[in-house]
Amino acid sequence: MNHDTIDALLQKINDSATSEGNPRTKAIVNRVVRDLFHTIEDLDVTPDEFWTALNFLTETGKRGEFGLIAAGLGFEHFLDLRLDEAEQKAGMEGGTPRTIEGPLYVAGAPESDGHARIDDGTDPGQTLVMRGRVLGDDGKPLAHALVEVWHANHLGSYSYFDASQPAFNLRGSIRADAQGRYSFRSVVPVGYSVPPGGKTEQLLDQLGRHGHRPAHIHFFVSSPGYRKLTTQINIEDDPYLWDDFAFATRDGLVPELKKAEGAQGEPYGVTGNFALIDFDFTLSRERGDVPTTQVQRARAAA
Ligand code: DHB
Ligand code: FE
Predict the structure, then answer these.
(1) Average pLDDT in the 153-180 region?
(2) What is the mean pLDDT of residues 255-283?
(3) Whose CA is nearest to atom 8 of ligand 1?
(4) Which CATH number fits domain 69-301: 3.40.190.10, 2.60.40.1930, 2.60.130.10, 3.60.15.10?
(5) Which PANTHER family does the UniProt record give (predicted)?
(6) Ligand 1 pocket: which of 76, 150, 192, 220 to mutate (most atoms <8 Å of CB)?
(7) Long-range CB contacts (< 8 A, 24+ apart) of 194-202?
């Protein structure tokens, strides 16, 4: 079909509006529909293919997998890169790199002062202590900043989404002390893979791609007057470190996993050998001329 004929149809659809509606929604939907009409035409998409895709999307929604697909198709990383660019254009530099939130945060984790143990003692993984400070972009500590942390267990599963784990297992909210210091005790996570037999896996198979993420730990770090940081750190040496299906690994987010033992564990109630990560988070001051990092999205809460 001629592109002019397609555009005439699009115009007819657009002209059928009898009230203003929401101009922003209209602009976006009209653009997406136009792009899809042209895709169908240019790639000669058959009716079978169209309805297969529609059914795929329906099933994806029913299984709650759209958040995974957004990560796996690179949309979530793309949004990060757009925020990075907006900050660069506004002359901002420094600060801990952001990286994707992913779909597995749960609001409402118990809050602790300064330090928290976030594993329940049943995970066979190696004991981990992670500690550091929250700093402003002037290098000064941010007293009482909030560090929210969440990660997967030794099977790559997240509590809440994996009902076999206790509530808020491997999740915590740590209020840094007056010197901006935080620490937590947990276990070293392993990598995550998209749910077997799910729609994300089915799509990735069709694309000839895997659905693995390297072992990682998620953070929200916030302090009044500063831009909320959404980020992750990776466990070094993971085979998928630079082959993440969600494209979230970034320079500056792969701290050394140190070997520690003995008296080093005392402040955290750890005996014997353990893994230690030292990592400071640096936040940028809030400003009015760059898009906010306080992103609204549907999140689980318990
Ligand atoms: C996905 C899983 C994660 O653990 C994560 O951090 C990001 C994305 C996912 O399945 O898409
Ligand atoms: Fe994750």
Answers:
(1) 97
(2) 97
(3) 102
(4) 2.60.130.10
(5) DIOXYGENASE, PUTATIVE (AFU_ORTHOLOGUE AFUA_2G02910)-RELATED, INTRADIOL RING-CLEAVAGE DIOXYGENASES DOMAIN-CONTAINING PROTEIN-RELATED
(6) 192
(7) 194/68, 194/72, 194/245, 195/65, 195/68, 198/63, 198/65, 198/68, 199/56, 199/59, 199/60, 199/63, 199/65, 199/69, 200/60, 200/65, 200/68, 200/69, 200/72, 202/56
